[in-house]
Design a protein that fits this description.
Order of helices and strands: HHHHHHHHHHHH
CATH architecture of the largest domain: Orthogonal Bundle
Strand content: under 5%
CATH class of the largest domain: Mainly Alpha
Radius of gyration: 19 Å
CATH superfamily of the largest domain: Tetracycline Repressor, domain 2
Structural class: mainly alpha
Number of domains: 2
Shape: globular
């Protein structure tokens, strides 16, 4: 008679749908790098909450995450970059591109973005709120939000360009992306201003509703 051996759990298995979505296209090496990046970010937000953004140093963040300062800078160019960048844009881009081909662009973005926000609200609400509150309260972060390469405007522009199958975005695409980026940024900033009392999904959904008539033919 043989003894059945217990099945070992897979190491570092994603704990929620968002994490699974982020890890799905990555190699094992890339997944490990993602987890290191997330650990650094998580420890940074903990320190920011305890002692403030300006009073927290890169060295303190690195020590809390159990990495060296040089490792920190391999993942984030600056302390500001840690707050202004995230891992969700590729997942949002993929979600929009998976929507029905004939669906109006605004509806596709609305469905994909609200789906992601609902998942984040359920699994990573505290980190999401900490990030938005920092951007709202720290002038350098709020200014940097519009300069970041992965700003909301750049995300929507990338989606529009890929969806249209062109290499360079048109003027109309740039204008549409700028308006969408500004509208969604305003929604999340309102969420931070309300200290999280308002529902972020309702705020983002309302922003899209207000824009629907203007982009009905896009």
């Amino acid at each position: 008679m043989t003894t059945e051996q217990p099945t070992a759990a897979l190491p570092d298995a994603p704990t929620d749908e968002v994490q699974a979505m982020l890890e799905a296209p990555l190699s094992l090496r890339e997944r490990k790098k993602l987890k290191t990046r997330q650990t650094i970010r998580r420890e940074a937000y903990r320190l920011f909450s305890a002692q403030g953004f300006d009073s927290t140093t890169v060295e303190q963040i690195a020590a809390a995450a159990e990495v060296s300062p040089s490792t920190f800078f391999r993942y984030f160019a600056t302390k500001e970059d840690l707050v202004l960048t995230d891992e969700y844009d590729p997942a949002i881009l993929a979600a929009v591109l998976q929507r029905p081909a004939g669906e109006p662009f605004l509806e596709s973005c609305r469905a994909a973005l609200l789906g992601m926000i609902r998942h984040l609200r359920e699994h990573d609400r505290e980190e999401l709120f900490a990030r938005m509150r920092l951007v709202h309260e720290v002038p350098s972060l709020r200014a940097g939000l519009h300069r970041a390469n992965d700003s909301p405007q750049q995300l929507f522009l990338a989606v529009l360009t890929r969806r249209a199958g062109v290499e360079e975005p048109t003027y109309d695409m740039r204008v549409a992306a700028a308006v969408l980026g500004a509208a969604t940024t305003e929604a999340v900033m309102r969420w931070a201003e309300s200290d999280g009392r308002e529902d972020i999904t309702d705020l983002v959904d309302r922003a899209f509703e207000l824009l629907t008539s203007a982009f009905a033919g896009l």
